[in-house]
Amino acid sequence: MNALDHNRSLLGDYGSYVLPVLNFRRIVLVRGSGSYVWDANGNRYLDLNSGQFCSVLGHSNPDVARTLLEISQTLQHTDTSTLSETFLRAARKIHDCVPEMNGRTILLSTGAEAVECCLKYAKHIKERPGTLSLDRGYHGLTHGSAACSLSRDRIRPPLDHSYVAPAPVVHGDADDGPEVDRCIEHFAEIVARHRQHIAAAIVEPILSGGGFLFPPPRYFQEIRQICDDNDVFLIFDECQTGFGRTGTWFHYEQLDCIPDFVVSAKAMGLGYPVSCVIANGHTVPHPKFAMEYFSSHQNEPFAGALVTHLIDRIETCDLLAANRRSGEHLLAQLATLAAEFPLVASPRGKGLMCAFDLNVPATVDGKQAGDRFCAIAQENGLLIQHCNFGRTIRLLPNYLASPEDFAFLADRLRDTLATFQIFLDQTS
Ligand SMILES: Cc1ncc(COP(=O)(O)O)c(C=O)c1O
Fold first, then answer.
1. Quick one: 190 and 323 in the same domain?
2. Which domain holds residue 356?
3. Tens digit of pLDDT for each residue in 315-337?
4. Is 232 within the bounds of a domain?
5. Tens of pLDDT along 233-279?
6. Ligand 1 within 6 A of 269 CB?
7. pLDDT at 428 over 80
8. Nearest CA to 234 among 207, 201, 188?
9. Residue 390 in contact with residue 360, Cβ under 8 Å?
10. 226 and 281, same structural domain?
11. Which of 239, 245, 270 to mutate to test the pocket of ligand 1 (most atoms within 8 A of CB)?
12. 336, part of any domain
């Protein structure tokens, strides 16, 4: 072993203390700054995932650090039944960003927790036990959220009354034809058949983990109508798309379709565990104590401070417009790469949520190909993730990523694709 391989020695010394729930990367990160992170050997990586799509103002942002320091020196925590001024101001800010929702917010910790809370709330109000989700959707790994996700077959025991409709396998607004019709029909049939059991339908406006699918606005408008006609709530899971990622506060704004609940997470916590459920004040009845919900870290002051910080920063720096511009730039770069490398298929995206498919032969295992691609990217100084069982590469950079960062990305992606092609030539 190289005596200076600190990544390896850290994993060797401490790795056996870690619950092995994942095949972790073989590097150990020690610091981050802006769009970059460094491993224990001093190697620098451009982080195209913003952590797990969360550190949207970059790593170790000094203003975020100041906000956290300030709240931790003012009010660290409250008992669950007592609200803080910091939380109340954040709830009001969320309301004012999207007044059409007349939103009523609870802040929670993870995306799955927020989905779980939302489903529970919807079932409680409708007094029905079931949900309808899309086959390629992903909503988290708690029992209720997993029952609505593409890994649903792995949960034990399966949840009764978890109905599933096919997601349109389409890649953009122009992709609005028979596939979308077919999926709307399925959705309508399932709701009609099981309406007495379904409290809510839950959908991602962009299906990320399931293949970066972009159903067109008509799809969402029609399922909205079906839900209304059958007295079923419509929940938008905006854990990835929410708080500016696609160039609007929430992605539903681009679909002309207002949901009954928005669930969000990731960006809103700036790298710390913050999520939320926003109930539509016009369509969700809100008697006092509609349903009790009591957990140790709900409506935390630090969560309120981070959300307020992000909203203020988005407003003062006009980051919604900036994300739309940066996204167009990134997408243009992916289109250029697609023209150069037949390996790059269907570049697509909205704002800073972009992806392309790996055009590998059907005989190559998708997961193996995706893992290999990301490993080569890492050797080239890029931290990138795949989804869609390895067949799609997704890029969700931070909101402050610069043109230089994107130039570095394009350069290193070229090297990655060239090496990946050699790997494919050798395996097929
Ligand atoms: C759309 C969506 N919903 C829910 C979740 C679950 O969030 P968490 O991992 O914070 O529980 C995720 C996580 O990737 C997600 O992308």
1. no
2. 319-360
3. 999 999 999 999 999 999 999 99
4. yes
5. 999 999 999 999 999 999 999 999 999 999 999 999 999 999 999 99
6. no
7. no
8. 201
9. no
10. yes
11. 239
12. yes
